[in-house]
Design brief:
elongated, Immunoglobulin-like, single chain, six-stranded mixed sheet, alpha+beta, disordered C terminus, disordered N terminus, 17 helices
């Protein structure tokens, strides 16, 4: 038994030694006091470790040294030293050494190195900004060792008093001019001199510089400026003065805005007007001089009023129409044409366009009993309609007017007679009062009322519209959708804009409450893949989307339910705003591969990225994961602003799993993050990865990502650490931003909020000058037959230049099928198919022309449509776009 206990004690001792109880320090560092510039050496020895893994520590931080030496003192016994050849004040502190063994950390005793030398400053005097003759204090603090330390002040090159102990506070009664100062700290080792400070006298700030217009959106103008010299006092506000230049100058109320930032949005300005603006900034002393006047011109808008005094003259040969012209303030732009719409027998006819405020239409008899309205149009659109005027011959109008007079007299006499009889009857008889008024008992038999219908109608019974009650969804969802459900009768579907695997996008017109028509885009799901579950998921997404309000996120207008003949469930249709310039990917391709390529400035490309990042920041703040961010899913509106589209809908409208493999659809792997490819995990960080690929698409003007790499090879390509190469002519700072989005660790990728800040700083660093005058779109209404109906003219000074984005977007000469338009050869008026109509009410991208394209009722696949874009491209570029068809397999509709 005793032998067993001795064996147990032996093994337990060995176990304690192995676990670290045998680790012990045989030498500890000792305190040392040395003079500045001398050498110092600390030693430390440890026993019980197999390898020399001794680390020196200073004030809690590890000291890393490449020349640390270890000396063997015996088996598992090591010694090391820490040496400083020339000690400086920053070497002073507390030192010790540590050893890690089996997860435990062992520390030696701690020692101090005290450095004696000239004093070093703990607080040096700082610059002072003050008003004239106002007292202020200066502070200086220094320490040894050795102690004590004396402080001596120098002001303007003159010694102020005698030396005093540190720390020292010097009280100044006030100065009238700027003056330099510093302090000296002295001990037995020598003297140290502080930094030289300056006493500044506060003055008025200098005038701001670099005043410019950053952005124009409708009647909202964003201004920016650079503050001038602050006058040694922080700027608190800036004053903005605005005047409108018309026939006479008109000053608007000045605005005072806090700064920074040195940005301000002017709102409520008149469209198509000349303005001047200048800025002054204010500090404690007062306001600076104003900056030079900046002159700018606000963009056009639709007219604010309808033409007045619409009259006509009808003869057997022609119908003559006349109306008053609009005032300049009412027009809000350059008059492009007058649009006349008319109905005959209650049926709307083709609208007409006129260049003057009068029109002569041949064949007067065919306009009998027709109703006419007129509206003024600029290049932005058409304004409100004038009251309708009914066309009747002169003789009929005279008879109608006379009959109206006689009818009025008879009605007046009849009303007077009835009122007199009623008054007499009331005075003779007492009425019975009820909650609905007075009721009189008829003295005779029951009265009968007979009438003759003025007009009768015969109408087939229409099929009832689908309601939310017919879907069997819960009450909470129904309540959320009540204000976004649009009756299908208010929608008129038009040409197909695009087609995908799960449905199509069609042009449509939505009838508003004021009977006006709004052009919209309608996403219609295929009926053969729609089930009750799909409809409920679609409606749930619509309930969330209706609360989205952001300029860079496409906003839901409503949802409509189209009942199918013989089917129990309706087809859901999602109503979205109509995006005039289409998707960003097609726009980028046209800038490279169009028949007339156009340049996109770096500032424009960064603006596209900034718009997308702002939209994604908004979505991520609302816990929305996009899952399919790419240039093809970003849309351009009429102001060239990018809106993120197809967010969150793809997964829940179309199927239970949007990214599914198989013969039905393919995976857009070239935009998907590494962790999503591996584990099918989608987060906001995976959207950031897709945003980096979208930045690469923008910088390459629509090229296919990872050229030469097959879809099946993408995962192996990325897992090896490979990434998209820097595009040609891409700045390093832009590529660094997109490359940071592709970190293999999702948490290491920047957030969208951080990306917005980076891109805003990058955009501002370009320091754009005042924006050039925007090119205007003119319609040649006076040209000879066969002359072009649309013409792009350069705005501003002379000299040719490459067309900008909006010029290129408006040009109708690109050889792609949807951009072919016809020009009517009539000179008196232009019918709906004319070039003027394209600029006024239509969309240049989807006009079906004689060169081909889908007619009404025909559907052209997105794959064929994209291949036709590359007709005029070189063979290499055409192959590039064909490769894209293999990668970009999903068409979001």
């Amino acid at each position: 038994m005793k032998r067993f206990l001795w064996i147990l004690v032996f093994f337990w001792g060995s176990f304690e030694w192995t676990c670290g109880s045998g680790v012990m320090f045989t030498k500890h560092p000792s305190n040392q006091t040395v003079s500045q510039g001398n050498a110092v050496r600390l030693g430390c020895a440890v026993q019980g470790v197999m390898e020399p893994d001794i680390v020196w520590m200073k004030d809690g931080d590890k000291l890393y040294s490449t020349d640390q030496m270890f000396i063997t003192l015996g088996e598992q016994h090591w010694e090391t030293f820490h040496s400083v050849k020339s000690v400086q004040q920053q070497d002073a502190g507390q030192y010790w050494c540590e050893v890690e063994f089996h997860g435990l950390t062992f520390s030696s005793e701690r020692a101090w190195i005290t450095v004696e030398g000239v004093p070093h400053f703990l607080q040096e005097p700082q610059d002072v900004a003050t008003f004239p003759n106002v007292p202020f204090n200066l502070t200086c603090a220094a320490v040894g060792p050795p102690e004590p330390v004396q402080v001596l002040w120098w002001l303007g090159g003159i010694q102020e008093g005698e030396a005093r102990p540190s720390p020292s506070v010097l009280h100044i009664q006030g100065v009238n001019t700027s003056v330099k100062f510093y302090c000296e700290a002295k001990n037995t080792r020598g003297i140290s001199v502080s930094r030289t400070g300056t006493v500044h006298i506060k003055v008025l700030p200098a005038a701001p510089a670099g005043l410019q217009v950053l952005r124009m959106v409708d009647s909202n103008i964003t201004l920016s400026w650079n503050p001038g010299f602050s006058g040694h006092s922080e700027l608190s506000t800036c004053i903005i003065q605005v005047s409108r230049r018309s026939v006479r100058r008109r000053d608007l109320p000045q605005q005072e805005v806090p700064v920074p930032p040195h940005l301000h949005v002017l709102s409520g300005l008149r469209s198509h007007s000349n303005y001047s603006v200048r800025v002054s900034c204010v500090n404690e002393v007062g306001a600076s001089p104003f900056s030079p006047w900046l002159h700018f011109h606000t963009p056009e808008s639709v007219p604010s009023a309808a033409p007045r005094n619409l009259t006509f003259d009808l003869s057997e040969q022609r119908l003559s129409l006349n109306w008053a012209t609009l005032q300049e303030d009412e027009l809000q732009g350059k008059l492009l044409a007058y649009k006349v719409q008319w109905t005959l027998g209650g049926e709307p006819q083709e609208p007409l366009l006129f260049k003057e405020n009068w029109a002569q239409l041949p064949g007067g008899g065919r306009f009998f009993n027709a109703s006419f309205q007129v509206s003024a149009c600029t290049s932005v659109g058409c304004g409100p309609w004038s009251p309708p005027v009914l066309v009747l011959p002169a003789s009929v109008r005279v008879q109608v007017q006379r009959s109206h007079v006689w009818v009025g007299l008879l009605l007046g006499l009849l009303v007077a007679t009835v009122v007199g009889l009623l008054l007499a009857f009331v005075t003779q008889r007492r009425g019975k009062e009820t909650q609905f008024g007075s009721v009189f008992k008829s003295p005779g038999p029951e009265s009968c009322v007979s009438f003759t219908a003025a007009r009768s109608f015969s109408r087939n019974c229409a099929e009832p519209e689908s309601t939310l009650d017919s879907l069997g969804i819960n009450n909470d969802l129904k309540n959320k959708l009540q204000d976004v459900l649009i009756p299908v009768r208010l929608l008129t579907l038009g040409n197909m804009l695009g087609k995908g695997e799960f449905g199509s996008v069609r042009e449509a017109f939505l009838k508003m409450e004021d009977t006006s028509l709004q052009k919209v885009a309608v996403k219609v799901l295929k009926s053969d893949i729609t089930s009750s579950g799909d409809i409920e998921q679609c409606l749930k997404e619509a309930a969330y989307m209706k609360d989205f309000h952001h300029p860079n996120v496409i906003q839901l207008i409503g949802v409509s339910l189209h009942r199918r003949p013989g089917q129990r469930l309706p087809i859901p249709m999602v109503v979205l705003p109509f995006m005039k310039h289409g998707d960003l990917h097609t726009f980028l391709l046209l800038s490279r591969l169009g028949e007339q390529p156009f340049d996109l400035s770096l500032q424009t490309l960064i603006q596209f990225m900034l718009d997308i990042s702002r939209g994604m920041d908004y979505l991520s703040s609302r816990n929305i994961i996009h899952r399919d961010l790419a240039a093809r899913n970003c849309m351009l509106d009429e102001n060239m602003t990018v809106c993120v589209a197809d967010f969150g809908l793809s997964k829940k409208i179309y199927s239970g799993d949007y990214y599914r493999q198989g013969s039905v659809s393919k995976l857009p792997v070239k935009w998907i993050a590494l962790e999503s490819l591996a584990d099918n995990i989608y987060t906001t960080q995976s959207d950031v990865w897709a945003f980096g690929v979208t930045m690469w698409e923008i910088m390459t003007r629509g090229q296919t990502p990872y050229p030469g790499v097959e879809n099946s090879e993408i995962y192996e390509f990325l897992i090896k650490g490979e990434r998209l190469k820097k595009p040609a002519d891409c700045r390093d700072d832009i590529y660094e931003i997109m490359h940071s989005c592709w970190s293999p660790v999702p948490k290491c990728r920047p957030s969208f909020q951080h990306l917005v800040g980076q891109l805003e700083a990058l955009w501002l660093s370009l320091s754009p000058g005042p924006p050039q005058k925007e090119p205007l779109l003119y319609v040649n209404l006076e040209g000879d037959e066969g002359e072009e109906g649309e013409r792009i003219r350069k705005g501003g000074g002379g000299g040719a230049r490459s067309p900008g984005p909006e010029e290129a977007a408006a040009a109708s000469s690109w050889s792609v099928p949807w951009q072919q338009g016809t020009v009517d050869e009539e000179r008196d008026w232009l019918m709906v198919g004319s070039g003027a109509t394209l600029a006024i009410g239509g969309d240049y991208r989807y006009i079906i022309g004689p060169c081909g394209g889908a007619e009404e009722g025909e559907e052209e696949s997105g794959e064929e449509g994209r291949r036709r874009e590359s007709v005029d491209a070189s063979p290499e570029e055409a192959r590039d776009e064909e490769d894209e068809d293999e990668d970009d397999v999903i068409i979001n509709v």
